[in-house]
C-alpha cells in the first residue's frame, strides 16, 4: 500500500501527525510506503458560470490512500472528491476543535466567520476515515463512525536526549512555552500561584518563557518581567531547548470546549525531556496521570515550591514521568495504528465504490 501524506504550514502538527508517523511506519517495515509532500499538486480552472476557481485535477502520485491534514478550503474538498472518484481513499487528519476556537483567540475570526471550521467539518463528513488525537475530536469530526483516535506520541530520539533532571542547578528555572499575547486566558488560570512560589524560593528560582513573553507579566500577576527565549519553529530545536532551559514546566489551560478537546502533547513533551511539570485539570492530562495537577493558585504555589525546595522529589517525579513516555508514548508504539487506519480507509473506499457502481 502506498500512502501519500499532505502536510500544512504548521510545524508541530506536521511533525507529530504526518512526518514522524510516516517515518515510523517506513522504519517498521509494515508493508506500507508512506510519502510526505507539502500540499497537493492541483490544476485549477475558472468555473464557466461563476468564474470562481475550481480544482479540476489533483496529482495522486500513484497512492492508494491520500492523507489530508487540516483541510479547511473548498479546494481541498474538491481534491477529495476527485481522488475518491478514482477509487483512492482519503483520510482527513484533525487535531483541533476548530468550531470552538475561543473568541479571544487571534484565529477565531478566520475559523468561525471566515468559514474555515465549517469547511473542515464538511471535509471530515466526506472522508473515508478521520484520524484525530482525542475522543472529543472523534465525536466532532466522525459521527458517521468512520474515525479513529491515534494519540500524540514522541519520537524516541527526543526522549533519549539528556533529561533535565540530571542537572543540579543552583537556580531552578520554571518555564512556560507559548505565545502570551495569544493565550492570556490560559496564563490567568495560575492566578497568584507562580508569584507566591517565586517569593517563597527567592534567590533559588526564576521564571522564563520560550516563545512570546509580551503581556505575560500582567496575565500571571508577576512583579517583574519574565525572562524570555526567542520562539523557534523547528520542533527538533524546540524540544531540545525544553530540556536544556527548564527544570520545571507549567501547563495552565482554561477549561473551555476548545482546550478540553486538546491532546496531552505538551505534557508529554515536558515529560519526555525530564522536566518536572505542573498542569491544570484536563481530561487528557488526567488520563495520562503524569505531572502534578493544580486547580487553584495555592496548589500552583505549593507544587512549584516543592519542586524548587526538594531536588530529590523533583528528580524522582520527572524520572517516573519520562519512563511512562519511554514505555508507552513513543511514535514507534503507534506505527501499526496508523497503518490500521489507512487500511480501514481503503476498505471504506472500496465499499463505497461497490455501492456506487
Description:
This protein folds into two domains: 2-153 and 331-356, Rossmann fold, CATH 3.40.50.2000; 156-328, Glycogen Phosphorylase B (Rossmann fold, 3-Layer(aba) Sandwich), CATH 3.40.50.2000. The chain is 43% helix and 20% strand. It has 16 helices and 14 strands. The chain has helices at 11-28, 74-85, 108-111, 116-126, 135-141, 156-159, 184-187, 193-200, 216-220, 235-245, 257-260, 265-272, 283-288, 297-309, 311-328, 335-356, and strands spanning 2-7, 33-38, 42-46, 53-58, 65-69, 89-94, 129-132, 147-149, 172-179, 205-212, 227-229, 248-251, 276-279, 292-293. Strand 5 (65-69), helix 2 and strand 6 form a beta-alpha-beta unit. The longest helix has 22 residues, at 335-356. It starts with a strand and ends with a helix.
**Beta-strand share of residues:** 15-25%
Determine the mean pLDDT. 93
CATH architecture of the largest domain: 3-Layer(aba) Sandwich
Main CATH class of the largest domain: Alpha Beta
Distance separating the two termini: 23 Å
Task: State the helical fraction.
Answer: 40-55%
User: How many structurally independent domains?
Assistant: 2
What general form does the structure show? Answer: elongated
CATH topology title of the largest domain: Rossmann fold
The beta-strand count equals: 14
Give the strand order of the largest sheet, numbering strands 1, 2, ... along the chain: 2-1-5-6-7-8
Looking at CATH, the homologous superfamily of the largest domain is: Glycogen Phosphorylase B
Order of helices and strands: EHEEEEHEHHEHEHEHHEHEHEHHEHEHHH
Which structural category fits the helices and strands?
alpha/beta
Unreliable residue stretches: none
- Please state the CA-atom Rg, rounded to the nearest Å: 22 Å
Please summarize the sheet with the most strands.
6 strands, parallel
Amino acid at each position: 500500500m502506498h500512502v501519500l501524506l499532505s502536510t500544512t504550514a504548521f510545524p508541530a502538527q506536521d511533525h507529530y501527525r504526518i512526518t514522524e508517523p510516516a517515518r515510523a511506519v517506513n522504519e517498521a517495515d509494515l508493508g506500507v510506503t508512506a510519502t510526505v509532500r507539502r500540499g497537493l499538486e492541483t490544476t485549477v480552472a475558472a468555473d464557466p458560470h461563476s468564474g470562481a476557481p475550481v480544482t479540476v485535477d489533483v496529482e495522486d502520485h500513484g497512492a492508494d490512500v491520500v492523507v489530508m491534514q487540516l483541510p479547511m478550503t473548498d479546494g481541498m474538498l474538491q481534491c477529495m472528491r476527485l481522488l475518491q472518484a478514482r477509487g483512492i481513499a482519503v483520510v482527513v487528519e484533525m487535531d483541533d476543535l476548530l468550531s470552538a476556537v475561543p473568541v479571544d483567540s487571534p484565529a477565531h475570526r478566520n475559523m468561525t466567520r471566515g468559514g474555515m471550521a465549517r469547511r473542515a467539518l464538511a471535509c471530515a463528513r466526506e472522508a473515508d476515515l478521520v484520524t484525530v488525537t482525542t475522543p472529543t475530536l472523534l465525536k466532532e469530526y466522525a459521527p458517521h463512525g468512520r474515525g479513529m483516535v491515534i494519540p500524540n506520541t514522541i519520537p524516541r530520539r527526543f526522549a533519549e536526549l539528556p533529561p533535565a533532571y540530571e542537572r543540579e542547578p543552583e537556580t531552578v528555572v520554571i518555564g512556560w512555552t507559548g505565545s502570551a499575547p495569544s493565550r492570556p486566558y490560559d496564563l490567568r488560570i495560575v492566578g497568584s500561584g507562580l508569584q507566591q512560589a517565586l517569593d517563597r524560593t527567592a534567590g533559588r528560582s526564576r521564571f522564563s518563557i520560550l516563545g512570546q513573553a509580551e503581556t505575560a507579566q500582567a496575565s500571571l500577576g508577576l512583579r517583574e518581567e519574565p525572562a524570555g527565549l526567542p520562539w523557534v519553529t523547528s520542533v527538533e530545536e524546540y524540544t531540545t531547548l525544553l530540556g536544556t532551559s527548564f527544570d520545571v514546566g507549567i501547563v495552565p489551560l482554561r477549561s473551555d470546549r476548545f482546550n478540553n478537546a486538546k491532546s496531552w502533547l505538551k505534557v508529554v513533551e515536558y515529560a519526555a525531556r525530564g522536566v518536572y511539570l505542573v498542569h491544570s485539570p484536563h481530561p487528557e492530562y488526567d488520563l495520562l496521570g503524569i505531572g502534578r495537577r493544580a486547580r487553584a493558585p495555592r496548589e500552583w504555589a505549593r507544587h512549584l515550591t516543592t519542586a524548587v525546595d526538594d531536588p530529590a522529589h523533583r528528580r524522582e517525579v520527572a524520572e517516573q514521568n519520562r519512563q511512562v513516555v519511554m514505555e508507552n508514548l513513543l511514535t514507534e508504539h503507534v506505527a501499526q495504528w496508523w497503518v490500521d487506519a489507512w487500511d480501514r480507509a481503503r476498505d471504506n473506499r472500496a465499499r463505497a465504490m461497490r455501492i456506487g457502481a
